[in-house]
Every structure is written in structure tokens, then in C-alpha cells.
Write a structure and sequence with these properties.
The structure holds two protein chains of two kinds. Chain A is of the alpha/beta class. Chain A is built from 27 helices and 37 strands. Chain B is an alpha/beta fold. Chain B folds into three domains: 2-257, Rossmann fold (3-Layer(aba) Sandwich); 268-350, Ubiquitin-like (UB roll) (Roll); 355-451, Up-down Bundle (de novo design (two linked rop proteins)), CATH 1.20.1440.230. Helix content of chain B is 43%, strand content 10%. Chain B is built from 19 helices and eight strands. Classes of the chains: A alpha/beta, B alpha/beta.
Chain lengths: 915, 452
């Protein structure tokens, strides 16, 4: 701690910070541009000038940049100094010289840091009377719009994109007053984190293209605290709605999970919510008992429920199939309705086994699971069988920061403070903390990795077991290990043991229990050698962890029960079975199910087979709880009531549908139920989930007796927005489920600490920088506590080592020579079911391709440019990769529904490449 | 063809010729230039060795005490000849070495781009081994592994001469492994710049050397802590490094005495004049000589013109008046008069030249050469250019001069990221102070009337 004196007042601050950060943390306002809490100081914009005095007797002082000055003990500064104020006004005046002043047509207007800072510095008269310079803009892909005329040259974009996120295709061009930020030629920004530019840019140079297409001012949108549903990371989001559509997703600050940044799948993958082909009313397939082909008809809620209940009541046995992309509450309601003995998680057996292993390891492997923020404090990382950027988006950014953190350690030896970003970068150059990746294909972290080992899943597992043995001789020996792999294992073990806090990362992408057990063994070995380390296990979907805690039979079981005639009715919750198991298996099971009730918010191959389709709410229209890959239960809340602007819609939360259906089934009149009751019921039924109740405040939560406002207080047009339907404005929808109001009425301030913040706004702070007002210190934690509660806790002890998998059999079978095994590679864009329905994601998804080892390619007589296809799948071009494991074919996730990891496939070549 | 090259070379020589005959120069009084030939030809290794060449290296490496070099240099108070006047010995003493610290770099700042400055090229074009010798001593003192000469791109002749001299030195064992049997390894490469003034700023130079944008770096950390590629690095001007061999051979007291009591600063200095004088050129003179003596050596103003103002050491120094001609030109004295010694090469402005035009020209240069990193420099300087252009055309408006005052003040030291904008502000501020009426003439009668 340090005492600093600001404008004659004394304050206690964190002396390791710079003055700007310290003052902002105190709630004092100093304008700034180039500084960013996650990226440190560079002193470029000169906006944060204050007057600093040497000591008590110094009455002259000098202007310094607060971002570049340590908040050392007994520092004396004046923010309100007249000359400092005048200088700050000059800086904004310069920045505005070439700015187009196009706020009325600029997407940034209303949440623009440049607007905020201009107002803060009281610059309101333009004295520059000469011509402005103008720039050409670039096409940067489907996500980001580019308007360089607005640029104020703060350099934040390239610092985030290149220095923080490891991008290489956005740069600085030109010099003097003609500095240009863009690509060397037009084209899609390559970084999967490019979307953060829209928030990092203090003005409207980089804006959200998906938002531009259906633009609404920030103050005119309705928000809720959201949880991203597009992977298992559980990033907190702030989705904004207008006219019954999600208009954009912005980051919602969470001190432990996502900080200031999201990945582009999470930010731009929301389009499925707005699709016009969504089921918005229940559908009933006339004569479905007799004919598959009959067209569905739209029916009312009561009719749908009674039809469904009647049918289910006559069924011999009803199987319920849950979903890892649906909330705990909805899954629980289904499980309750059909009974535990008849409930399936809807997860394929291999994946579910992996999920169970991961839960076990998180409890018993001896190392705790760090939060994503804590990941950045680890000084050696082994990634075993994962491609984190592709499988868990944002997590890849955390791992990159872990490698980059060596800069700060090196800086410490020279007394360079950790906020002095450029100096640390200069000092460290390309020195990183060791990061080892065992993964067959190139990953987005290779540039900061010490080594990547291209191996097949079994070999990755064996490498992991060998690392464990090298760390702890008590761990089982791996027999017949290739000398190169033994060297690699030694090298990795040495690096992990040399670290203060080694981290092991693995996950379910390879659907290999062996790989997970190997990762667990490394964790155990480190734990037994008394290392303070961590273990991170990546799950695939938003609620995979939650569903594995809730429990249930795998999907394979459910299909077998149906196909075997042990059940004749089926209720499917937000799950496209065809994405998970081969179509013939699903078909034969569905053919035996006489009654097929499907709840979903999208049209899928499964909803096509529904006898009754119940129009479920997406994340945007519902509340619920998800458990992320840390084991953190987090609540997401309804953004808008879909019936307000479209009274004809009958969209409801799945848990609400299922509650009503269950009541109907019992022949009772369905009284309504609210979220609190559903949460409580779920928690009561599952001891492992008991903590979920405190994941968020319940619907009775109030601040100063008020609900929390979903809309900013400047929300406009409320009386008119529905006038096309009826000139009288109906009452705003009531929300029985949460403490949020569907209006601007309610609390939206920052003074009272709160955990659940739909949108960040504070007087004078309209941009995302307003989050600084909600945190205990800038870049710290929400003053009301970071949302969510951890459900999985380590149990003392390390458990026992499992046995390594055996090496490859010496002789290959004929089958092995003629076929390849599928190695499905996760894909951030296009590899996830719902976001793949969003148009920008579809545009952004790379042209998919097969990867083959050159020897296999030769054996199959394919050349680069040829296409291959698998029965039933699309024909894709082939790429050869020198170190790709032999006997395996790399397949992009999301292209071949129903093909399982490791499955033998027969590929057929089609000529078309170079002769 | 060969004739045209020869004539080009002739013209190149003419501009960088020292206007002092060999007879006037001696090893005792002209440590920088006594070896130079009257015919302007290069002093190659054989001749250089005959003229005490590399004696200081033999001596210093033979002594095996790098710290002694720094101590001598500190005692001699050799001040940086690039313009800032920082003690080279002090700079070297702050360079990190020993322990786990990797061996870093000695970088010669040969990016001589200060308008009105043409001293370093003389040393590099005609006497390359003196610089190499100085760099070896610097490397030895700072435990540098490698040396770079960051050379202004247009200095083709210097590049040719330096590269050949480096080859000579390497062949003779003055560079490379185990120099002169001392066990010390060191070598030097020439890196030619791509023509940005800002590369003369030592940290921007390092960034450029690393292949990055030539943006200055924040200090601290200083290059001596974390310089090129994050390793301890020393950046010294050509002339500074060329001073080192004689200091090591003759000692600090000898060096101090060179200025002959004119000033507290020791040593000699390459002074010069450009502008409408009879004989523009270069001289090695004692530190602290007056402007008047230099102007006299230059034969006075050309064609009976009157001196209006002069810049003592390049475009980024403040204007002085004829009344300042008798001040000793050293770092501190000139500093007290609101200017800087800078490079010590005078730029002369005659009475008939418009100061508004001169300033417009200078500010166009500075605005163009801004790296674009910090706001006052990037966006403030172009505004001064626009205002000066308007004033020059008689299209100034009421308030423009006050705006120039404010812009110049806002570009002052500490308020900008590096010294580039303060360097642009200093001539502007002094011109506004001494010649305000000329600027006022650019404000049109119409807008003056509007003011009333």
C-alpha cells in the first residue's frame, strides 16, 4: 500500500499501480485513451496529464502522464490543476482535428469513450479551421466494420490484437498525422478475438458489423446479464435487444472468468436467436401416428400441451433426453417428469465417460482448478490433447497471457513495473514461460509454445503418462516409449518441476479417457511432489459440466431402449440427436418411438421428426443456470419477453413448458412456477448442484426497494415501438423469475455493489470503460462479487495413478490399412451447433478440409487439391501435413454429423487436384 | 560515366571538407581531425596505424581494466556530441553488466539527419577507423558483444568507406574474436537507415534497428538496462565515440585542457556553419569558442548581408540573435540563453529572410518527421504548419499567434513522449519571442478589423 495525495486529499492505494489506475480505482476521473486496464500503459495519447509535485514544499511541480508514473508512496499530484486541465483540453482538441464529428451516424455514438472523454475535458469549441485528412476503409470480414476517419491513433487496437491476442494481420502503417491501422490488404481479420476491437477501440473505427446491420443505440436497447452458450467457458455477456431481436453482444466484466474480453464465436454467434425459421409457436403433426410425411400445423399452447400429455399418458414408457446446451433447470424438469430411470443426458457415451472422468479428476487429482484469470498466473503449461482456442475460445487468451507473463517476471529483475507494457515487451522479446502442446494439428498458441507434439490420441496419452513418471517415479512406467517421446516427456517434466505454479490443461476434444487419465496422472505427480499447480479440463458445450453433475444415462442407452422396444415415447430437450450419433442409429430409434415430443428453439433434423414441437426459448428469452468448465454455476437471465412485440409468439422456457406438460400429464391444472422454485427444486434433487441456488440473487432481490433495470434510463420510443399493432401502450411485461424489470424503471447505478449488471453505465461513462466504476479496483473484481459459485471442489488426497495405455499393436490389420480413423478437430467457427446457424459465423468459418499424413495421402492416391468424401458427408479438399499422425484423417468439427471421434471411416478420393 | 561519378564524388567532398589545413592541426590540439589529409582522401588502415591508430585499443585492452576506461571518460566529462550533452562516462557507468546479464550492444548513432548538420559524415567518410577504434573501446568498457553503426541511408559514401574499413580492421585483427590477444570478442556491422529523422532518437533508433517502427521507447528503462533486443545497449554519437581514443591515450586532464579555459566543458568540437556565409564549412575548434569566431572563419555573411538570427546547433535548437555571438558555445551557456548547443553547427538567417517562412519550413520538416506515436507531436505540429502557412500567405486570423504560443508550449518537454516535439517547439518559441512582429504581419487587416 502507498499513500498518495491528490488535490490535497490523502488516499491509500496499491503502490504497484500507476497513478492513472490508482486514481480510477479511487473513483476519481482522469481522462485517458491509450491506457487499458488489461494492457497497461504506453504513454502515447498524453491525455491523462496531471501535475506532480516533488514533495510538500514544491509548489511548482510539472506535468506528468499519470499512466506512466508509479503510484509510489507520498506521491503528490493535482488532477484539478489549471494547467493540467488546459493541457488535457488541448489533447482532445488535437485528437478531434481530423475526427469526422459524425456521431449521429456513427455506431459508436452513445457508448463512445471519445465522446465521454471530450465531455470530461470540456472541449466544446473547434478552433482548427483547415482541411481534415480523410482515409479509405477496408473490408475486414463479416464481423468488424472499419471507419478509419474516426481514428484518434491511440494504438489500442494493435496493442490488443498483436501484443495481447497474438494476431499478426493488423498493423500500423504510415507516420506523422497519417497513421493507418488496418491490414496490408483488405480481407478478413484472422484473429479469433478480433471482435474485442469493437470494445477496445475508444471510438467508432472498429464496430460490430452484425450490430450495424440492425443498428440500435446502446441507450435504446434492453439488456440482461447473459452467459455465453457457445462453449463451456461461461463468459459473461451483455446481450442487447430491440424490437424482439438480439442486436449485439458485448462483454460483461467478470473478474475471474472473462475479464474484458470475449471470443468471436461468443460475440458474433448469437444470430440463431433472430432466425426467422425458428419455431415460435407449438407445432403438431396431424396424423403423426400413421404417417411421417404429414405437414406440421401450428397449434395453441393448451392444445399442444393436451395433445402431448394425452399421447404420453398412453405410452408404455417415456424416455427423456436432456441436453448439454440447455439449462440445469430445464434438464431437471425433464428428468423429474420422466423419472431418473428414464432420463438420458443426451450426450454420447464416450463423451459422457470423459465428462465423468473430468469431474473425478477435478476432485481427486490433487490439483485445484484455477479460474481463467488465475490461469494467467501459472508459469509453465502442458496442454495435453486440446486446442484451447478452438475448443474453448476465451481460454486460449488466458493461456497466452500465462506464457506472456514471463515479461513481468523479467521486468521485476530490472524494476520495470508490470504496467509498463512496451518496456516489458522490449525486455522480454520472444521469451515466454514454457508452454507445451500435444495436439496433432497446428494451434493458435504455437507461436508462444516451446514445443508442439503432433501425435495421435493414444500417443498423447502415453506422453502424458511418461511425463507423470518423469515427475514422480512412483507413477507407472510407460513401456516401449519411443526415444523421441521419452525425451519430450523429460523436457516437459523438467519445465513443470522448475515452475512455481505448473498448469495441466486437457479436455474432452479427443474423447479419450486415456488422455484425460494421463493429464490426471501429471496433476497427481505434481501434487505428490508438492507443487502448487492447477488442472484445467475443457468440456465441449455450455452445460456439459452441469449435465454430468446432474447425471443420467448416455444418449446411446436411450436410443437402444427405444430401438429395443423398451420404450415407445420420447421427449427431447433442445438436442439434435443427429449431431451426436450416426443417423441410422437415431432413425431406427425414432422409428420405434410412437410419440416424439421435441422442445427446441431451432429447427433441426430432430425437430423434423417431432410429433409435437414445443417452441422453446433460447438463452435470450429464458433464465437458467449453466455450469462452466471450472465447475462454476452461473445464472443467465431473460433479455426480453418475446411476446411483447410479437404477441402471436408462444415461446417459453423449456423448464416452463415441461412444468406445464408434467402437470397436464398428471391431469392437474398447471399453476405457474417461477425460476426460484425451479432452481430450488433442482438443487434439492441433486446434492452436487446444491450450490446453484446462490449462483445469483433470487427474484426478490432489490436495491433500495427497486428492481434492477434492464434498460438504460434514456431508453426511448417505448410508447411508439408497438404502435403499429395498437396505439395503446400495454403494461411492460412482468418478470416473475428475476429481480430485473423490463423497463428503464429500477436501479441501474454503480454506487450500490451488485453482482448482476445487465449493462455498464455510470454518469459520464457510456462506453464499456464504465465497468471501471463497478469494480473494487480497476481490472479487479466486481464490488458486489464476481458472479457464480463453484460446485466442484478438490477432495484432499491425490487418488491413485491409472495405468498407461499400451502402445500401438505391432501388426496392422487389413482394415487399418484400408481405412482411416477419424480425428475430429474442434473449430471455433462452424464447429458448434447453434452459433453455426448465425450468418456471420457461417461466413467466417474457414473452408473445411481433411488433413492427411503424406504417406496416407500417397497410399490413397490423393494429391493436394483433390477432394475426399465420407459416405453421407460433403466432399472436402485434402491438405497434407508432414507431422500429422499416420492412419488418422483430420476432420473439421461440424461437417460430419454423427461421425464419432476415433471411428473407422472409409474415404473416397475424387480427382481434381494437380495432375 | 566514370567521369560523372568522379564529379559527384568531388561535390560530395566539397560539402564535407574540413576548412583547416593539415599544418594547423596536430595530435595535441585536434584529436578528431589531425589525421585527415588535405586532399580529402580516406585515411585507410595503413596510414591510420602510422598515425597512432589503434594505440588506445592496444593500451586499454592490454590493461584489461574496462572500468578504468569508464572512469577516465567520466573524469574527462566527455559530453554527448549528438546534441544532448549527456556525460558519456556516466552513461557507460549505468550500463548493466556482469552476473546473469547478457552481453549487449554498442550502437553508434550515425543517423545524422539534424537539418544544418554535416559533421559526422566527415569523420566517417575520411577517417572511418577512428570511429571503429572508439567503438571497440566502448564495447570493451560496456562488455558489448556486438556493435552496430546505424547510418543515415543517404550516406552512401560513408557506408562504402565504413564497410571497407571494417573489413580492413577485421583482417588486421582489430575486430573479431580475441582482439589483439586480449581475449575480447567484438565485431561491428553497418546498418543503413531508411530515412526518418526520428531514428536519430536513440530509442527509436533501437526499435528501427530491431526492424520495428521507429517509435521512441519510454525511459526508464534506459537502453543501458534494456536496449536492443532487450539487452543492455549503449547508443553514442559518432563524434562522441571518436573522442574516446584520444582521451584514453592522453588522459582526462589533457582532454579538459583542450578547451583552453573557455568553458567548463573540455575537449574540442567540430563546429560548422551553413547558410549565406562566404565559406560554409567545418572546423575542429576548442569547446566554448564563440559564434563570432566561427562566423569569422566562415568569412562572414555573404554579399554584405546582415545577420538576423542563428541556430547554434541544428533545426531543433532555439534562435539566437547577433547579440549572442560572443557567448561561448558550450552546452550550459547556450542552454541558459533559451536555446541548446545541439550539434554545434550554426545555421545563419540573414536579415532579408522572412522568419515566418523559415519557421514554416522548419515546422513542415518536424511535422513530417513525427513518428505519430504521441498526440501533441502527431496532431499539434501539423496544426502549427497550417497556421504558419496561413500567416505566410497573409491569411492569418486573430488569435493565430496566441494559438501558436499555446501549441509550442504544449509541445514542451515532459508533455510529449520524446524530445522531437520539444525540438520543434524551441525554434518556434524563440522565433515568436524575438520576431513576433513578423508573424503579426501575417494576420490580415480584415480579421484584425473583425477583432475590434
Amino acid at each position: 500500500m502507498a499513500t498518495i495525495h491528490v488535490d490535497g486529499q490523502s488516499y491509500e492505494v496499491n503502490g504497484a499501480q500507476n497513478l492513472l489506475q490508482a486514481c480510477l480505482s479511487l473513483g476519481l476521473d482522469i481522462p485517458y485513451f491509450c491506457w487499458h486496464p488489461a494492457m497497461g500503459s504506453v504513454g502515447a495519447c498524453r491525455q491523462c496529464a496531471v501535475r506532480q509535485y516533488k514533495d510538500e514544499d514544491d509548489d511548482k511541480g510539472m506535468l506528468v502522464m499519470s499512466c506512466m508514473t508509479p503510484a509510489a508512496d507520498q506521491t503528490r499530484i493535482d488532477i484539478e490543476d489549471e494547467e493540467a486541465q488546459a493541457f488535457r483540453a488541448s489533447v482532445v482538441e488535437w485528437l478531434m482535428i481530423n475526427h469526422p464529428h459524425d456521431c449521429p451516424v456513427c455506431e459508436e455514438g452513445g457508448h463512445c469513450h471519445l465522446q465521454d472523454m471530450t465531455v470530461m475535458t470540456a472541449h466544446d469549441r473547434r478552433r482548427y479551421r483547415f482541411r481534415k485528412r480523410t482515409r479509405r476503409n477496408q473490408y475486414l470480414g463479416p464481423f468488424i466494420a472499419h471507419e478509419m476517419n474516426r481514428c484518434i491513433t491511440c494504438y489500442r487496437c494493435v496493442r490488443f490484437y498483436n501484443d495481447y491476442a497474438g494476431g499478426t494481420d493488423l498493423g500500423v502503417f504510415g507516420a506523422k498525422d497519417n497513421v493507418y491501422f488496418g491490414r496490408y490488404q483488405e480481407g478478413t481479420l484472422e484473429s479469433p478475438f478480433a471482435g474485442n476491437l469493437t470494445e477496445v477501440c475508444p471510438t467508432g473505427v472498429f464496430t460490430d458489423q452484425s450490430h450495424s446491420d440492425r443498428y440500435t443505440r446502446k441507450w435504446d436497447m434492453q439488456f440482461s446479464p447473459g452467459i455465453c452458450h457457445q462453449c463451456a467457458m461461461g463468459c459473461n455477456t451483455s446481450p442487447g435487444e430491440r424490437y424482439g431481436e438480439i442486436r449485439r453482444i458485448e462483454n460483461r466484466y467478470h473478474g475471474e472468468v472473462n475479464g474484458y474480453f470475449l471470443c468471436d464465436r461468443g460475440r458474433f454467434g448469437y444470430g440463431y436467436v433472430n432466425r426467422s425459421d425458428r419455431p415460435r409457436v407449438p407445432e403438431y403433426r396431424e396424423g403423426w401416428r400413421e404417417s411421417e410425411a404429414s405437414e406440421p400445423v401450428e397449434v395453441g399452447v393448451d392444445a399442444a400441451l393436451s395433445q402431448a400429455a394425452d399421447a404420453l399418458r398412453h405410452a408404455r414408457r417415456v424416455i427423456g433426453i436432456g441436453s448439454p446446451r440447455a439449462s440445469l433447470e430445464s434438464n431437471h424438469q425433464l428428468q423429474t417428469m420422466v423419472g431418473e430411470a428414464h432420463f438420458s443426458t443426451g450426450i454420447e457415451a464416450g463423451e459422457q465417460a470423459c465428462l465423468d472422468v473430468m469431474n473425478q479428476l477435478q476432485r481427486h487429482a490433487g490439483l485445484p482448478t484455477p479460474t481463467p484469470r488465475e490461469i494467467e498466473d501459472h508459469d509453465a503449461v502442458l496442454v495435453l490433447g486440446e486446442d484451447p482456442v478452438q475448443s474453448a475460445g476465451r481460454l486460449g487468451l488466458n493461456l497466452r497471457q500465462a506464457a506472456l507473463a514471463r515479461r513481468e517476471a523479467l521486468g521485476q529483475t530490472l524494476g520495470i513495473p508490470q504496467w509498463n507494457a512496451e518496456a516489458l515487451k522490449t525486455l522480454a522479446q520472444d521469451r515466454y514461460y514454457p508452454l507445451f502442446i500435444a495436439w496433432p494439428a497446428p494451434t493458435d498458441l504455437d507461436d508462444v509454445a516451446e514445443a508442439r507434439y503432433a501425435m495421435d490420441p493414444d500417443r498423447i496419452a502415453r506422453l502424458g503418462f511418461a511425463v507423470a513418471h518423469a515427475i514422480d517415479p512412483a507413477a507407472p512406467v510407460v513401456e516401449n516409449l519411443a526415444p523421441a517421446d521419452a525425451d519430450a516427456a523429460r523436457r516437459i517434466a523438467e519445465a513443470l518441476m522448475a515452475a512455481e505454479r505448473p498448469l495441466v490443461v486437457s479436455g474432452g476434444s479427443l474423447v479419450s479417457e486415456a488422455v484425460l487419465e494421463a493429464a490426471g496422472s501429471v496433476a497427481r505427480a505434481l501434487s505428490r511432489r508438492a507443487k502448487r499447480g492447477g488442472l484445467v479440463l475443457i468440456r465441449r458445450e455450455a452445460n456439459s459440466t452441469g449435465l454430468s453433475l446432474l447425471g443420467g444415462q448416455p444418449l446411446d442407452w436411450a436410443l437402444e431402449e427405444l430401438a429395443g422396444g423398451n420404450a415407445d415415447a420420447l421427449v427431447v430437450l433442445e438436442n439434435d440427436l443427429y449431431q451426436r450419433l450416426p443417423a441410422d442409429r437415431v432413425d431406427s430409434a425414432l422409428a420405434r418411438a410412437e410419440i416424439r415430443i421435441v422442445l427446441d428453439h431451432q429447427r433441426t433434423a430432430t425437430t423434423e421428426k417431432a410429433s409435437v414441437l414445443l417452441s422453446a426459448a433460447s438463452f435470450a428469452e429464458s433464465d437458467g443456470t449453466l455450469v462452466n468448465l471450472e465447475g462454476r454455476a452461473q445464472r443467465f437471465f431473460q433479455v426480453y419477453d418475446p411476446g411483447y412485440l410479437r404477441p402471436e409468439t408462444r415461446i417459453h422456457e423449456s423448464w416452463r413448458w415441461l412444468h406445464a406438460l408434467a402437470a397436464n400429464l398428471r391431469g392437474e391444472k398447471a399453476g405457474d412456477i417461477n425460476l426460484d422454485a425451479v432452481v430450488q427444486a433442482c438443487a434439492n434433487a441433486h446434492p452436487a448442484l446444491a450450490g446453484m441456488v446462490s449462483a445469483a440473487p433470487d427474484s426478490n432481490f432489490r436495491i433500495d426497494g427497486q428492481r434492477l433495470a434492464r434498460e438504460p434510463h434514456r431508453y426511448s420510443g417505448r410508447t411508439a415501438m408497438r404502435a403499429n399493432q395498437n396505439v395503446s401502450e400495454p403494461a411492460m411485461p412482468k418478470d416473475p423469475d428475476s429481480a430485473f424489470s423490463h423497463s428503464m424503471e429500477g436501479y441501474s447505478g454503480y454506487q450500490e455493489p451488485r453482482q448482476q449488471v445487465p449493462f455498464a453505465w455510470a454518469p459520464g461513462w457510456n462506453s464499456p470503460q464504465a465497468w471501471n466504476k463497478f469494480t473494487d479496483e480497476v481490472g479487479g473484481h466486481l464490488r458486489g462479487g464476481d458472479p457464480g459459485v463453484r460446485l466442484i471442489h478438490p477432495v484432499p488426497g491425490q487418488g491413485s495413478y491409472s495405468l498407461p495405455v499400451r502402445g500401438k499393436a505391432a501388426t496392422e490389420t487389413t482394415e487399418a490399412r484400408e481405412s482411416l480413423r477419424a480425428l475430429i478437430l474442434p473449430r471455433l467457427f462452424g464447429g458448434e451447433e447453434t452459433s453455426a446457424l448465425a450468418a456471420p459465423i457461417q461466413q467466417r468459418a474457414e473452408q473445411p478440409f481433411f488433413i492427411l499424413n503424406p504417406d496416407d495421402a500417397q497410399r490413397l492416391a490423393v494429391r493436394a487439391g483433390d477432394t475426399l468424401n465420407i459416405a453421407g458427408g460433403p466432399a472436402l479438399p485434402v491438405r497434407e501435413q508432414e507431422d500429422w499422425p499416420q492412419g488418422w484423417a483430420g476432420l473439421p468439427a461440424g461437417c460430419f454429423a454423427g461421425i464419432l471421434q476415433g471411428q473407422r471411416i472409409t474415404v473416397r478420393a475424387q480427382a481434381g487436384g494437380e495432375a | 560515366m566514370s567521369q560523372s561519378i568522379a564529379s559527384q564524388r568531388q561535390s560530395v567532398r566539397y560539402r564535407s571538407r574540413l576548412l583547416q589545413p593539415e599544418s594547423e592541426r596536430s595530435a595535441d590540439t585536434h584529436p578528431l581531425t589531425w589525421r585527415l589529409r588535405d586532399d580529402g582522401e580516406v585515411v585507410w588502415l595503413a596510414e591510420y596505424l602510422r598515425k597512432e591508430g589503434y594505440d588506445s585499443v592496444s593500451k586499454a585492452l592490454g590493461n584489461g581494466d574496462p572500468k578504468a576506461i569508464i572512469a577516465t571518460l567520466k573524469e574527462a566529462n566527455v559530453r554527448g556530441r549528438g546534441g544532448a550533452g549527456f556525460s558519456a562516462g556516466l552513461k557507460w557507468s549505468l550500463t548493466l553488466q556482469g552476473g546473469d546479464m547478457p552481453r549487449g550492444y554498442i550502437i553508434c548513432n550515425a543517423d545524422e539527419m539534424e537539418p544544418g548538420t554535416f559533421k559526422d559524415r566527415l569523420l566517417m567518410e575520411q577517417q572511418p577507423h577512428l570511429l571503429i577504434e572508439g567503438m571497440i573501446l566502448a564495447a570493451y568498457a560496456n562488455n558489448s558483444r556486438y556493435g552496430y553503426i546505424f547510418l543515415r541511408g543517404e550516406y552512401l559514401e560513408s557506408a562504402r568507406v565504413l564497410n571497407r574499413a571494417l573489413e580492413e580492421a577485421r583482417e588486421a585483427g582489430w575486430l573479431g574474436p580475441d582482439i589483439n590477444g586480449s581475449g575480447f570478442d567484438f565485431d561491428i556491422a553497418v546498418h543503413t537507415g531508411a530515412g526518418r529523422y526520428i531514428c536519430g532518437e536513440e530509442t527509436a533508433l533501437i526499435n528501427s534497428l530491431e526492424g520495428k517502427r521507429a517509435n521512441p521507447r519510454t525511459k526508464p528503462p534506459f537502453p543501458g538496462q534494456s536496449g536492443a533486443w532487450g539487452k543492455p545497449s549503449v547508443v553514442n554519437n559518432v563524434e562522441t565515440l571518436c573522442n574516446v581514443p584520444a582521451v584514453i591515450l592522453n588522459g582526462a586532464d589533457w582532454y579538459q585542457a583542450l578547451s583552453g579555459g573557455r568553458t567548463d566543458d573540455g575537449g574540442s568540437k567540430l563546429y560548422g556553419v551553413s547558410g549565406p556565409v562566404e565559406k560554409p564549412g567545418l572546423w575542429e575548434l576548442p569547446m566554448g569558442i564563440t559564434g563570432r569566431e566561427i562566423l569569422e572563419r566562415a568569412g562572414g555573411m555573404r554579399g554584405n548581408r546582415q545577420l538576423k538570427a542563428w541556430l547554434p546547433g541544428g533545426a531543433s535548437t532555439g534562435f539566437l540573435l547577433p547579440e549572442h555571438l560572443d557567448l561561448p558555445l558550450d552546452f550550459d551557456t547556450v542552454g541558459k540563453e533559451g536555446s541548446r548547443l545541439g550539434t554545434g553547427l550554426l545555421t545563419v538567417v540573414p536579415q532579408d529572410k522572412s522568419m515566418v517562412a523559415v519557421m514554416r519550413n522548419l515546422e513542415e520538416f518536424f511535422a513530417r518527421e513525427s513518428c505519430g506515436w504521441c498526440t501533441p507531436c502527431r496532431d499539434g505540429l501539423p496544426w502549427t504548419v497550417k497556421l504558419l502557412q496561413a500567416l505566410e500567405l497573409g491569411q492569418g486570423e486573430a488569435g493565430d499567434i496566441e494559438l501558436l504560443d499555446k501549441l509550442a508550449a504544449d509541445c514542451g518537454p515532459g508533455q510529449t513522449f520524446c524530445a522531437h516535439a520539444p525540438g520543434a517547439a524551441m525554434p518556434l518559441q524563440t522565433a515568436l519571442k524575438h520576431f513576433r512582429h513578423e508573424f503579426e504581419q501575417g494576420v490580415t487587416a480584415r480579421s484584425k478589423a473583425a477583432e475590434v
